[in-house]
Give the backbone structure.
Amino acid sequence: MTTTIENPNYAYPARSAGRRGPNLEKAGWIFMRASGVVLVVLIFGHLAYNLLWTPGGIHAVDFGFVGGKLAQPFWQWWDVLMLWLAILHGSNGMRTIVNDYVHKPTIRAVALWAIGIAAAILIILGTLITFTFNPCPEGADPSLLPSFCAEL
Amino acid sequence: MSETSSSLTLPDPTPRKTTFSGTLYRGNEGMWSWVLHRITGVAIYFFLLVHVLDTALIRVSPEAYNAVMATYKNPVMGLGEVVLVGAVVLHAMNGLRIILVDAWPWATKHQRLLFWIVMGLVAALMLYFTPTHLINVFSPIEGGH
């Protein structure tokens, strides 16, 4: 037995005829794939560096370790790019799921706004922190700070 | 929209016999990879929200950041981290499979094989990650926090 699948372009065009302006759903589709590939590199690097290649792994993660990383432009840009792409990729994925399962217009609008507001807050918060961060705050216990703070 | 020029004729897929047969959508590899991609995606999203907020405490004080990081060093959380990394690895490998299936006709035809390759890669990557991480989780903490 065989099944014949009609060429879907005819019965269900990807876009309604006469629709104008940028195709945002297509842009989103491409973004999920492009950001996904970059996120595999950024997140695997994040996990391998912090949890596998640093002696002590999870036990070594503290203010001294992360402060020492965020004092370097390389890790600042790594983390900020990872933040933006992960939040946008995750939020767009959640939007897809809400569109699939939430049918009541009011609840759907609330859910989509919640996803959008959470994304905006976390992106702004994370970006500000990464670039205004002081690894050697005044008056802090020196034993908790990155080692280079002693030389200042 | 242009007139249709070609249609695709495929043999009917033979579904595996499962206890789910008779439900809407029988359990082939394509369904399970879709289900796993959604579940892992939602789980990672909620962890991401928490992880950005806990990292934000680094701007408050060294004590506040170290206090929240101490919760990640608890052995129960350590086991949870294995599950979380497993979810990330699965979502990552399956996402690459989706890109291949979309972009490359060979991969579209062999998506079933690719699902099992994804599973093999996840197993291999977790065999690399889990022993090192669990040794760290269950080792005595130096400095005694």
User: Anything to note?
Assistant: The longest helix of chain B spans residues 75-103. Residues 101 and 107 of chain B are 5 Å apart (CA to CA).
